[in-house]
Every structure is written in C-alpha cells, then in structure tokens.
Specification:
Helices cover 67% and strands 2% of the residues. The chain has helices at residues 2-9, 21-31, 44-63, 65-69, 78-103, 109-117, 134-155, 161-189, 193-212, 224-229, 237-255, 280-290, 294-307, 309-328, and strands spanning 265-267, 272-274. Strands 1-2 form a two-stranded antiparallel sheet. Strand 1 and strand 2 form a beta hairpin. The chain is globular. The chain starts with a helix and ends with a helix. Mean pLDDT is 93; it is low at 1-10. It binds 3-hydroxybutanoyl-coenzyme A. 3-hydroxybutanoyl-coenzyme A is lined by residues 52-53, 56-57, 60-61, 64, 91, 122, 124-125, 144-145, 148, 151, 212-216, 221-224, 227, 233, 237, 287. 3-hydroxybutanoyl-coenzyme A binds at residues 52-53, 56-57, 60-61, 64, 91, 122, 124-125, 144-145, 148, 151, 212-216, 221-224, 227, 233, 237, 287. Residues 14-26 have a biased composition (Basic and acidic residues). This is Phenylacetate-CoA oxygenase subunit PaaA. It comes from Sinisalibacter aestuarii.
C-alpha cells in the first residue's frame, strides 16, 4: 500500500525495515486506527508535520477573517450583517481550537504567531485574494468554505486525537458557512441583471484560487506520502480537488452560472468532471508573498499583534503576581 502511495504522491515514506522498534509500534497503532494522544511516543517527523499543518490551518482561520471582516460594515441588510458577524467569530474560534491542538505538541501559541509574522509559517493561499463586491462574500462561503469542508471532513478521522476532535467541531460550523455563502449566491444569481453579473464575476475570480486551496498536484506534493502513511492526511490533494469539482459544478449550473473553464466536461467513462488545472506558477508566487493581498494581510496581523501587546503584558504580570502569591502561601 505504501509503495502505491509513494508512486502517486511524490516523496517517499520510510520503509518498515528501516524503522526503529518504537517507530514500528507507532505505525502499527496508526494502521489500526488508534488515536495518538499528546503524551504518547511519536516520531519527531510526525510531531513536526502536525505542528506545521495544524498551525498553518490555525493561521488560515485567523487571517481568513480579514477578507470577510472587510464587509461587516457594508453587509446589505441587518440579517446578513448578523450572519456574517457570527461566521467571522466562528473563524476566530476555529483558530483557537487549532492553536490549542498545536500546543499539545509542545509549542506555544506565541511561538506559532511569531512564525507566522516572520514568514516561516504559511497560511492558506486563498486569503491573499481581495473581496471586491458583496457577491465575493457569497463566493467565499460557497467555494472557499466548500473547499475547506471537503478537506476537513476526512480530517475528522486524522490520527492525532486533539486535531481530530477539533475538526469535528469545526466541520459542523463550516457547513453553516458554506450554506450561507450559497444562499447569498442564489439571491444574487436570481436578482437583477447587475447582481447576476456580480455573482458570475465572483465565481470567475474565486474558481481557480479555490482549486489551489487543496495544494499542489500530487506529483509535486512534498508531504502527502508520509502524511498519509501517518494518517495526518486521509486523501491526496488531487483526490480532494476532484471531489470538490464534482460537487461544485452542478451547484454552479443550478445557480445558472458558468464555471470559467472552457475544457470543463463530464467524463462518462470516469463519472467525474474533467477540468483545467489552475495556473501553478500563480500559486507559487502567492506562496512566496507576491499575491494581490499578501502584504496587506500580514500588515493587519502584525498590527493586531502589536496592538495586543499591552493585553499580553497585563496577563503575564497578573499571572506572575498569582504565582508569587501561591509560592508565599
Ligand atoms: N496555501 C498555502 N500553502 C500551501 C497550500 C495552500 N493552499 N497548499 C499547499 N501549501 C504548501 C504546504 O504547506 C507545503 O509547504 P511547507 O512545506 O512550507 O509547509 C507546500 O505547499 C507543499 O504542499 P504539500 O501538498 O506537500 O503540503 P501538505 O501535505 O501540508 O498539504 C494541505 C497541503 C492540503 C493544505 C494540508 O496542509 C491540509 O490539509 N491542511 C489542513 C487544512 C488547512 O490548512 N486548511 C486551510 C484552508 S482555509 C480554512 O480552513 C479557513 C476556513 O474558514 C475557510
């Protein structure tokens, strides 16, 4: 099974015969679908990969508030505003659960934030694109949260207990996010001609960036093979991308919108939609910091971190006083 995965996902997995007895026992537990808990022995690579993936996910939830927060004061009705506020607050909560899950692996939330701010940790490429119109908020909910769910539902079965439990709660909320986005798109698509054009324009701009969320194609994915052997990831990037396209194209048709891909065809033989790959050079440019909003997003996060310094200092001073008091008692 591993040989097959290595072939389909690029980089290799440590062969069983090269594993130490601890590594072999660990792999057996993972293969038996046992959950790995924080105090259990785990290979260094497993710990590092989890910290990288969970923290990148946490950062994505937090940075992901920015393109939507941008529309809270401009939502078209009081009801839409209340829904968007709740959604953005949910994303902050998801960030918190995930930072807590990462902390169980022996790294602090402050360290993770510093790594985001110094550029040594990533967040999802999608949040480096701007939300220019209200229809973009619909497209973000429908496509971006839709892609997030496609990736995250299988992660509920991931091998690391705290991550798996965080994902169960997150997925429930993401489903509501996707539905509210689709509902906005439906209103826009069935509205005036100008509104329909806005909905189509939002789909045109968010389609390929949403496909990029699943990561590079399997042949270029660096981590998939080992992450799948450890059940940190359950599916390959391409498998999830295909599932997303298969689910989303009929929804676009239902909305009366056109997916911006001239080569999109239903393949009767495979039972799947054939589609054009995103422009991977654009993806790697966004990862390097050259997307339309990278600078703006990082500047906002740095400002939030600097503005919050007095709160952190106050809490630390309070914690210091309490521990002095406890020591004296
Ligand atoms: N954006 C930014 N970086 C990405 C990326 C993306 N869309 N896709 C891949 N990468 C990076 C990887 O992190 C890796 O870089 P690194 O070695 O410096 O960390 C490199 O590209 C190679 O990619 P791989 O396929 O080898 O990486 P992974 O095995 O980690 O797979 C992943 C990438 C599928 C995104 C995986 O990490 C994953 O499933 N993560 C958990 C889910 C997640 O992070 N979701 C964020 C979505 S946004 C969100 O949930 C917010 C919600 O409110 C919408």
């Amino acid at each position: 099974m591993y040989a097959q995965m290595v072939k389909s996902t690029g980089q290799g997995v440590k062969p069983r015969e090269d594993m130490s007895p601890e590594e072999r026992h660990f792999q057996d537990r993972v293969d038996a679908n046992e959950k790995i808990e924080p105090k259990d022995w785990m290979p260094d690579g497993y710990r590092k990969t989890l910290i990288r993936q969970i923290a990148q996910h946490a950062h994505s939830e937090v940075v992901g508030q920015l393109p939507e927060g941008n529309w809270i004061t401009r939502a078209p009705t009081l009801e839409r505003k209340a829904i968007l506020l709740a959604k953005v607050q949910d994303e902050a909560g998801h960030g918190l659960y995930l930072y807590c899950a990462a902390e169980t692996l022996g790294i602090s939330r402050d360290e993770l934030t510093e790594k985001l701010l110094d550029g040594s940790m990533k967040y999802s490429s999608i949040f480096n694109y701007p939300t220019l119109t209200w229809a973009d908020i619909g497209a973000v909910g429908w496509l971006v949260d839709g892609a997030a769910i496609m990736n995250q539902v299988p992660l509920q079965r991931t091998s690391y207990g705290p991550y798996s439990r965080a994902m169960i709660r997150i997925c429930k909320e993401e489903s509501f996010h996707q539905r509210q986005g689709f509902d906005i798109m439906m209103k826009m698509a069935q509205g005036t001609e100008a509104q329909r054009r806005m909905a189509q324009d939002a789909l045109n701009r968010f389609w390929y960036p949403s496909l990029m969320m699943f990561g590079p194609s399997d042949k270029d994915s660096v981590h998939s093979a080992q992450s799948m052997a450890w059940k940190i990831k359950i599916n390959t990037n391409d498998e999830l991308r295909q599932k997303f396209v298969d689910q989303t194209v009929p929804q676009a048709h239902y909305l009366g919108l056109t997916v911006p891909d001239d080569d999109l065809r239903f393949n009767d033989e495979t039972g799947h939609w054939d589609f054009s790959e995103p422009d991977w050079s654009e993806f790697y440019e966004v990862l390097k910091g050259n997307g339309p909003c990278n600078e703006e997003r990082m500047a906002a996060r740095r400002k939030a971190w600097d503005d919050g310094a007095w709160v952190r200092e106050g809490l630390m001073a309070h914690a210091g006083k309490r521990s002095h008091r406890t020591a004296a008692e």
